[in-house]
Amino acid sequence: MRALTWHGQRDVRVDTVPDPRITEPTDILVRVTSSGICGSDLHLYEVLGPYLEEGDVLGHEPMGIVEEVGSEVTAVAPGDRVVIPFNVSCGTCWMCDQGLQSQCETTQVRERGMGASLFGYTKLYGQVPGGQAELMRVPFGNTLPVKVPHGPPDDRFVYLSDVLPTAWQAVAYADVPLGGSVTVLGLGPIGDMAARIALHQGAGQVFGVDLVPERLARARARGVHVLDLAVYGKELGEEVRRHTDGRGTDAVIEAVGMEAHGPTGVKTAQRLVGMLPGGLGQKVMGRAGMDSMSAFNLAVDVVRRGGTISVSGVYGGAVDPVPMLTLFDKQIQLRMGQANVRHWVDDILPLLDERDVLGVDAFATHRLPLEQAPDAYRTFQAKEDGMVKTLLTI
Hints:
By secondary structure, the chain is of the alpha/beta class. 28% of the residues lie in helices and 21% in strands. The chain has helices at residues 39-46, 94-97, 163-174, 189-200, 213-221, 229-232, 236-242, 264-275, 278-288, 294-302, 324-329, 341-348, 373-382, and strands spanning 2-8, 11-16, 28-37, 62-69, 81-83, 135-138, 146-148, 181-185, 205-210, 225-228, 249-254, 303-311, 333-336, 366-369, 390-393. The strands form 3 sheets. Strands 3, 4, 5, 6, 7, 14 and 15 form a 7-stranded mixed β-sheet that branches. Strands 10-9-8-11-12-13 form a 6-stranded parallel β-sheet, with helices on both faces. The radius of gyration is 20 Å and the shape is globular. The N and C termini lie close together (11 Å). 52% of the residues are buried. Mean pLDDT is 92; it is low at 261-270 and 283-288.
């Protein structure tokens, strides 16, 4: 089959690799029809190279048609249309029963002290082959796939794999009061969708912050009060407080993470660590890795006293400087973590009908064939051509 594979920092290629096969009686094989490129994929492209091996198959936002099922699979059958959550979760352990599929006890990567395995990610998360490929093996066929109806385009459902539940959880964790206010830092796919969900759920004021004109324009068109960080810079907090009776917003959703615009030295260090050989790079990142904390520190500034910060942006540092004094003094509540995809699906599915209240049908800015995936990664990383969300058609 053809699949997008990792070969080094900023080097991904579409290669011919062996077809996956069923190895457990609860496995299914899915012929992928669409697969998104995620901002988290750019962490693999740029920063997390020490935890990858040449030839790893990338991608964690797929959907497609069931092609084959194991002998114990009864929930889906060949020909069914399914979305695959990015958490590899069993659905039956204690953590899954609590709605914490990102902490699934069956697939936790215990040798590295990490949570549930993820499709198409790194050794930190199980090194499970991903879905930017023609075929993928999916375990837990009775509990993991999300069965969706035939008919509507893939765009209607593919974001159930990651974007929708991640944004939904970000808003849920932000705990925005009805009619209250929230600032969304970063208007990439997750931040953009989180702003839409916050408005849909009744937030009175939604501020969206970014540097990219196309992202700001998209959010503005959905009713978000956008703020260009290039214009406000260090005064952004003051501008938000000007609109919120001098307090700041009730909540902040931090949808940027480790690669926020920040000190040049941090960015340079991230790139250099990403270029180190695997074993050495892992040791350096695991003991001394540092993220840009610009977005997090901005969240601390913008949120009102007694408010909540919800972090959905991915961090990977080991010694990140967290402003504990300010967090404590402002009595800030902090929630974060990988999305528990399956936990939120039942809440989201009713919104994915012909009303399209969240605008998923037109959410993608680019639709490209799998063979053009390397170019798409380069464009997305450079924030060029108005690229906000790309779906690979397979």
